[in-house]
Amino acid sequence: MPTFDIVSQVDMQEVRNAVDQANREASTRFDFKGTDARIELGDHELVLHANTEDRLRALHQVLEEKLVKRQVSLKALEDGKIEEAAKGTARQRVAIKAGISAEHAKALNKAVKDLGLKGVTSQTQGDQVRVQGKKRDDLQEVIRQLKEQDFGIPLQFTNFRD
C-alpha cells in the first residue's frame, strides 16, 4: 500500500548560515554602527540583542530576509515579546518550532479525513503523520490539498513509498 509521511522540520544548518549572514550584515551596515546589534543561536532558540527596540525590529527584519533567501519557512519561528535587558538595551527571544504537535496532528488527520478520498487513512506517529492509501494518485491529491491549506507550521512530505 502506498504511504508517505507529513513532517515539520527545520534545517538548522541553514538557520545557522542565515544567522551568520545577518550578524555580518549588522556589523557592516551604517544604521547598525555602534549599536552592538547581534543574534545568538541556541539549540532551538534565537536571541536578538540591540540597544533600542527600533534597532531590534530592524535586526529581526534582516534575519527574516536571510532566512527566506535560504528557504527556511518563517512559520517555524515563534517571536517572543521584546524585553528590556541590561544597560537599557532590548532583547527578544525567537523560538524555532520543529515537529508536529498533538493539536496540529489532529488538524492534519481531520483535513485528510475531510477530503473524503476512498481508502485513504492517516495516523499520528510521534511528531509525524503517516498517510496510507490504495492508489498513488489519491496520495498525490492529499499532498496537493494539504499544500493549499495553512496549518501554521511548515510542512514537508517525505518517505513516499509505493
TrEMBL record:
One Pfam short name: YajQ
Keyword Nucleotide-binding: yes
SUPFAM superfamilies: YajQ-like (SSF89963)
Magnesium is among the record's keywords: no
UniProt KW keywords: Nucleotide-binding
Protein function: Nucleotide-binding protein.
HAMAP family named in the record: UPF0234
Family according to the record: Belongs to the YajQ family.
PANTHER family xref list: UPF0234 PROTEIN YAJQ
This protein's name: Nucleotide-binding protein ACFFRE_04450
Source organism: Aciditerrimonas ferrireducens
Organism taxonomic ancestry: Bacteria, Bacillati, Actinomycetota, Acidimicrobiia, Acidimicrobiales
